[in-house]
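Lecture 7, part 2: worked example. A protein chain together with cobalt (II) ion.
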Amino acid sequence: MARIKRIDHIALIVQDMQGALSLWQDTLGLDVSEIKDLPDEAAQVAFLPVGGSEVELVKPTTSDSGLAKYLKKYGPGMHHVCLEVDDIIGMLDQLKEQGIRLVDETPKMGDDGKMFAFIHPKATFGVLVELYEYPRRVDE
Ligand code: CO
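Predicted complex, written out as structure tokens:
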């Protein structure tokens, strides 16, 4: 049975990336590990590691994406929580068997070899849940 290992990140959706970075870096004291554009997701993201997890800031870069519509509808705030799992395909199969609605029936592949998929918020009491499976390291 597939298993959840840890909280990988929580993602906050922002309109003002500079303002949010100033809060999380200067006021709250976290360091930024990476800022990058994700053209496929029409988003700019920043990662701030903390305690083995990360805070992810997400800013829509177009006005017509799902993310942009979400921001328009709900305003800035919590967007999703991401759980690392040991077997994402097994986890998605388990969820499907139990009739849980998914955004992604099969995992997508990130450019870093990581697999990810989203569970639909209608199935999770309003919380968008992302699942990650990292590629195996050679020493595992
Ligand atoms: Co995420």
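The chain is about 20% helix and 40% strand. The first strand starts at residue 4 and ends at 13. Keep this in mind for problem set question 3.
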